[in-house]
Amino acid sequence: MKNKALTYILLIVVAAIWYQVFLRIKSNVSAEEGSPADLSRQTVEFQLIRKDTFLLSLNYRDPFTGKAQAAAKDELSLPEQALPPMPIMKPQFVWPKVTYYGWVKKTDSKNPLCIVNIDGILLYLRRGEEVFDGIRVVTVDRDFVELRKGKNQQLFYRK
């Protein structure tokens, strides 16, 4: 009996809450005076803004020749100069952040395994292996590892 009474009371409470929710939705959907739909019918006048113009006063001394020159007030025109072509520069290779932690080597092995962190990725590499678009391990030693990318070659010492 106790559970049935509690169930009926909770059903009435839930129905009252949903009734309030539906009333709020209906009041937001229906168009009344002062709603945003009425504001869209009003015309808005825009004010045009004129461009601000100015004239440079270039009557100062030329820093290279030392002569004072007065510019024409009506119109300033600079001579068009042909710029020399920019030399094509090859992009220089920038090494990623490389940290060398050391090596792991068996007593009878001649090819040790080096522990290298490249851009936050921990890698276990042997001599001659290639990672990350052509970065190749050239030399593995106890204190350093030598990496090569194309013609760029660099030593990274143990941390």
What can be said about this structure in brief?
This protein has 159 residues and is an alpha+beta fold. It has helices at 2-29, 36-39; strands at residues 98-104, 113-118, 121-125, 130-131, 135-140, 144-149, 152-157. The strands form 2 sheets. The chain has a 4-stranded antiparallel β-sheet with strand order 4-5-6-7, with no helix packed on it. Strands 1-2-3 form a 3-stranded antiparallel β-sheet, with no helix packed on it.
List keywords for this structure.
159 residues, alpha+beta, SH3 type barrels, three-stranded antiparallel β-sheet, 2 helices, 24% strand, flat, transmembrane helix, membrane, transmembrane
Verbal overview:
The protein is built from two helices and seven strands, in the order ααβββββββ. The strands form two sheets. It has a four-stranded antiparallel beta sheet with strand order 4-5-6-7, with no helix packed on it. 5% of the residues are buried. The two termini are 76 Å apart. The mean pLDDT is 81. It has helices at 2-29, 36-39; strands at 98-104, 113-118, 121-125, 130-131, 135-140, 144-149, 152-157. Strand 5 (135-140) and strand 6 (144-149) form a beta hairpin. The protein has a domain at 98-157: SH3 type barrels, CATH 2.30.30. The chain has 159 residues and is α+β, with helices and mostly antiparallel strands. Keywords: Membrane, Transmembrane, Transmembrane helix. The chain crosses the membrane at residues 6-23.
